[in-house]
Every structure is written in structure tokens, then in C-alpha cells.
Amino acid sequence: MTTTAGPGSRPDSPPPGPPELHQPSRRVVEPSQWRGSILPPVAAGLATLCASTSLTGVVGGVGWLGYVTVAVVLVAATGLALRAVRTPTVVVGLAQLVALLLLITGVFTSNGIVGVIPGPTALDELNGVLTAAFDQIRSGLPPVDATPPILCLVTIAIGLVAVLVDTLTVTASAPAATGLVLLCVYAVPASLADGMLPWWTFVLGASAFAGLLAVDGNHRHRRWRNRDSPGLGNAPAAASAPVAVVAVALVLGLVAGSAVTAVGTVGRLPGSGQSGAGAGSGGLGVNPFTSLRGMLDQGTTVDLFRVRGLGNDKRLLRAFTLDTYRPNRGWSLPDGPMPAGFPANQPLPAAPGDDGAGEARQIQIEPLNWVDVWMPVYGQLRGLQGVPPGWYYDPGSGAVFSERKQRIAPYLEAASLAEPSKDRLESATAGGGDIPATYSQITGVDPRVVTLTQNLAAGARTDFDKASAIWRYFSAENGFTYDTATAAATDSDALADFLLNGKRGFCEQFASAMAVMLRVLHLPARVAVGFTSGYADGDARLITSQDAHAWVEVYFRDLGWVSFDPTPRSDGRGYVPPYLQSGATSSSSTGSEDEDVPSVSTTRVAPSGAPETQGSVAHPGATQATPAGSAPGWTGWTALVLVLIALALTAGAFVALRTLRGRPAAWLPLAAAGAWLVAVVLTAWLVHWVLALVLLLLAVAGLAPVVLREIHRHRRLTAIGEGRPGAADAAWAELMDECTDRGMPIPPSDTVRTAAQKLATQHHLDDEGKAHLRTVIGAVERSWYSPAEAMDENFASAFQGLRRSLERNAPMSWRGRLFPRSVFRKRITAGRGTPAIG
């Protein structure tokens, strides 16, 4: 029979403590030194390297993989070498960061001390490289070329990931936590790529992560206490379970991603494949690239624009121009920062070659299903009405752009549609004026193409005659055929293959080829991308996705950019300007109404969407465009510094948790989490402030449980440490929450002794921990049945000792720390009147 003390009674001696708490026998298994010391860092480096293959979606080529491999191997080797001589953990992490910094300095700067040590000059040079990289990320369209700034940034980013994964795997013995880090490596290219990432990158990453778990997961707790943790055995099935789980998740994810949710297809959602007016697909844009091999993707016809004000005139509607030739690939926007731009809703400077003397035609353009960063315009732009803030005009490229793709409301364009006569063109000189000399420069052209070009222009007297000779070469008489099915490749050089062998393709191939040949003759040329004039629809013209087109523009001094469309047409659809018609001298003409030729591929614009136009000469009064949503220039560098700080704080937190086991290190995890959060938000800001805001809100929501748990814990520990009334109740409530967070909740119906027995058994308390538990249980019992009795002066230290024993013998999982179960369960705190001793 059990005797209970009534409320308010004071026994002559404290009630008996709980019975002797026996610790179950345990089996000690020492892992081999090779398996425990070599395999985890090797597996961590391999997992990082395999995850980095996801960057193939946003960085062109494979050369960057060599830089990444060197960085990962350097980090792993540094860690192995220093741990072999028992170097303190914090020093290992810092040494890995220093080794990475020396590598970056030696490879990407030229002013390092002894070549690799970063001095002030080298750091300043590195700052310029990183600034250029962040500018290219903010304005480039994936996949970007592997320029030195991009290579530097990729090496730094993956190197830091390698340090963090190595620290989590080896130092913290928490390889499962690396899954979140590796997932972030995939998240960036998946959100920026213009299509789905290659399936094999996911297979590689998931396989390496499963191997990491298999190597280290079955021995995490054994490395803490050299024993098996509850519920884990040494059977092969225990090591193969993580592999099976990851494999099943990978298969389900790939199947669902490709067949169900269309994840990775640039924003297309299930059921959004419809077309036409009112389609829910979000609209179309044009890809700022023209391919020499051709990658036409017409799809279904979608109405894009309704135009009024052209009358019977037929003109090409220009969206943007391309001035950078990629050998054997095609034409694209240049690398580099955003151009200087004039706000499009304010008075605009004159376009090159426009003296303002001619008539300004008022053209109303109504976008229907157009979503892009470009605002198409006709002729030589003089002004725009109905344009909201955030749109900018670059006279050098003739493009009107914004920093993000968006729907456009109807707008009114004032433009000069005058075209020069043939006589004026024959007397004009190509080049000169205010355009950069780069418009006439080109490299990487096959010698056969150069010879062909020079032969075609051999008898030409003027620059216009040279351009006309090249234009006339692309005719049916010379074997060229317009076709949406390109000829099979028979030559390694795409341009030579098209001009000399295949001679079959669509507009982007004809335009790309002619622009290259003009530059071979040192004539300033560029490729324009936009639309043909569509078809008549009442008093308007309707332009559809089938009208997407590419042509060539040549610059003539005092006349501006003059159009040449080399695509041969046999259906009468094409528009031949008067200066290219036989014997024409007039500057006015009309074209055929019966056009139906598909051309440049219509695709969804890449997520980065920021246009890069050629480096035009600055104009007086020009305002540097700083589009809404873009981050300040210091954002990228600050984010990198915060990542370094976060890595140091993370390493310090793990060391403190393993050695100090006390409150002095409690601020380190919070500081590390805060640094990571701010770094991620700043990085997202480089894309757009909306993404940064969304990530911030998600982080706040995700951290809410752990913050709430820390508030409760801090309040209770303060009450216990100061010996306030109710300290024993606070200690008991905290113990119950500690058990719940570890996945072993104790039912509220259990007596104190039963609860204590379960706590000691389930969490494998050592002798010191059991002694502290007796002290705590005794204080709790006395507070309930003899509240007037003074609190044991050793109570606070005993409670802290009990918490340290729990950490030693039953370390809390990452899930328990980030998502404490006690926050999501109803708190039931034992109070006075509860049955005392069972």
C-alpha cells in the first residue's frame, strides 16, 4: 500500500526517492579507423560534387566542373589532413575556408602575394570579379557562358557547400542534415533554367546522398557514446534502409515531376497547355537567341498583338536585337551589365538616323497573350504613351525593355516609318556615326565562309552593293529553301554546313548566316528578332505566334539601321522593301497581305528575363536604368561575407554542443541560423525582391516552432536558476517536453516514479544523470506535498546536469530541434493533487 502526504502536511523526512534506476546492458562496437575517418569525408565530397552537376542547367559547357572538382577535393583533403593530427574542430573548418580562399586568389586574381595569398589589391580585384558575376546573374539568360566571373562564383559557392557538408557529416555526425544543403544546390538552377534539369543530375545526387547515409547514418550515435542507439541494430538492413528510401523517393519524384506536375518547365502548370486568346498558359515570349542549327518550336497558334494605324503599309515589328555572335551556335545578347536606359514613359532621344523631319505615325499596339521583358516597336521610335514606370529605352539597340517579364497594357507608339531610297543607300557609307566598332567585328568564322563571302562581294562598288550581293545569294536560284525542317548536319561547322551543304532552314538560320557574312566584310550588322506584319483583321492587323521572325539590320551613316530579310519565300508572303526591289528609287511601298510563314521559335522567356543590350555609347542626359526589384550592388558581396560568417558560427555551434554542453553556447545556433537566413534572403534579392520576401516569410513560418520552444525553455530555465516559486513545476514540464521532442512522450497518466523510470531507461541515462534525476524528482515531490519546505540548493545544478546527461546519451535529432513535437502537442503539466508515489 502507498501512503500519500496530504496537502499542506510536512513529513519529518523527504519522501522516498524513486527506486534504483538500472541502465540496460549495452554492446560496444568500435568502427574501424578507415571506415570512421576516411569514408565519411570522401562520401561528403562525392555528394557535393554530384549535386553540383545540376549547374549544367544554368552554366554552359562542362569546363566549370573541373574548377568545382578541384575545390571539393581541396576541402576534403584539408579536413582529412588536419583531423589526422587531431586538430580542433573549429580550426579544421577555418583551415578549409582559408584553403578555399587561397585557391580562389591564385586562380582568379593576378595580384596575390606569392600568387595565392590575398592582399588588399587581390581582394579588390576579387571584389570586381564577383561584382561582374552578380551583374551577369542578374541580367543574363541561362545557360550563361562560363566566363571567369561565373567560374569564380561557382567555385566559391560549391566550395562553401563542400565545407558545410563536410562539417555536418564528419564533425556533427549528422549526414541526414546535409540533404537540405544539397537540395538548395538543386533549387537555384531548377528555378532559373529555361527547361527541366537533366534527369541524370538527380540520379547522381540522390545516389551520392544515399551512399552518404549508408556510410555514416548507422554509426552517428555510436560515435557520440560508442554504443548503439535505441532501436538501431547492426544488421545490413539498417544500412540499406536509407538507400531504399532515397531510391523510392527519387523514382517517385522523377515520375511525378515529368508526368504529373510538369515541374521545371518554366512555369507551365497542369492543364495550361491551351492556346489562343484567353489561354491560361500565362502568355508567350521570344527567346533572345538565334540558332545556326535551328530549334523551331512553333506549337499551336496564339494571338499575340492587334495593331491599328499601319493602314496598308507592312512593316516588321521589332522586339530586340542581337549583336553577339557565338561561333558554331548563333547570335545572342552580350555578356555584361545592363545598359544605360531612358525611362520609356518620358520624352525619348532620337533613334540613330532619324532627323525628326519625317511624319510621325501613331500606331496603337494591343498585346493579347504577350508576356515578356520586351515591348515590341515599329520603325524608328520617337515616343510612347500608356507605358507604366519600369520600362526603359536603349537607342543603341532600339529595344524597349523591363527587368522582369510581365503582361503589357495597350500602348501607343509614335514612330517614323520612312525608308531610305536606293540612291541614298548607294551613296552612303556603312558604319561610322555613334555606333561602337564592335558591330563590325567578328571571330571564329570558318575560312570557307570567309572565301565565299569575299567572292560574292568581289564586284561590288559600294557598301550597299556588298550588302545587296549577300542578300541576293540567299535565293532559290542558289539552292536555298525555306523549310521548318532543317537539313541533317553533315559538317562540324554549323554555319559552313548551312551555307555550302544543307541550304535548308528557317528565318533564324538565314538571318544568322547573313549577319556573319556582313561582318566578315566589316559592315556593321546585327540580327533583329520580332514579327512579320501578320494578317488583316478588319481595320487592324493581327499578329500571332506563327509570325515570329528574324532578319538582319545594317547600319548606314546618317540613315540609321536598314533592314535586309534574307529568308527566301515562295508563297508571296515576304515583304521586300523598295530599296531592294529592281530599279526602285522610291521610299514608299506596300507588301503582300497573304503571309503565312513561321520563323523564329516561340518559347517562354527564361526566368532571369533581364535583357542585356549591346554597349551603346552614352547619350547626354541618359539615366542609368535601375529597374524596380533589383538589389543594390552591395547585396551579392554582403551575402558572400554572411555565408562565411554563418559557416564559422555553424562550426562553432557544433563544437560547443559537443564539448561545452551548456548555456554559454546557446546563442551560437541562433546566430548561425540568423546569418544563414539573411544570406539566403540577400541572395534571393539578386533575382527579385518578391522572391526574397517569399523566402523570408517561409523562413519565419518554419522557424516559428523552434522559436516558441526556445521561449518556453528560456522562461523555465530562468525560473529554475533563480529558485522562483513554481521552479519544480517548470523543471517537470521541461523534462516532459524534452522526452516529447525526442520522440518518446511520457503519458500524463504515469506517476512520477513511473515517468522517471521510463526517462532513465528509454534515454540510457548514465550514473551521473540518474543521480541528478533523483535530486530533481525529490524536489518535485516535495514541492507538491510539502510546498512550505525550502528548495534544495542543489536543485538548479542537478537539473542542468540532468539535461547534459540527456544530451550525451540521447542526442536530439535535427527534426526534434527544428520541429519540436512538444509545441504541437497539448501541454499537460502535473500539478498539486496528482497521485504522488506509485
UniProtKB/TrEMBL annotation:
Residues 1-24, 333-359, 575-629 are annotated as: Disordered. SMART domains: TGc. InterPro entries: Bact_TGase-like (IPR052901), Papain-like_cys_pep_sf (IPR038765), TgpA-like_C (IPR025403), TgpA_N (IPR021878), Transglutaminase-like (IPR002931). The keyword Transferase does not apply. Residues 1-11, 582-591 have a biased composition (Low complexity). Residues 12-21 have a biased composition (Pro residues). Keywords: Membrane, Transmembrane, Transmembrane helix. Residues 599-616 have a biased composition (Polar residues). The chain crosses the membrane at residues 64-85, 97-117, 146-165, 172-191, 197-215, 236-260, 634-657, 664-683, 689-708. Residues 499-568 form the Transglutaminase-like domain. This is Transglutaminase-like domain-containing protein.
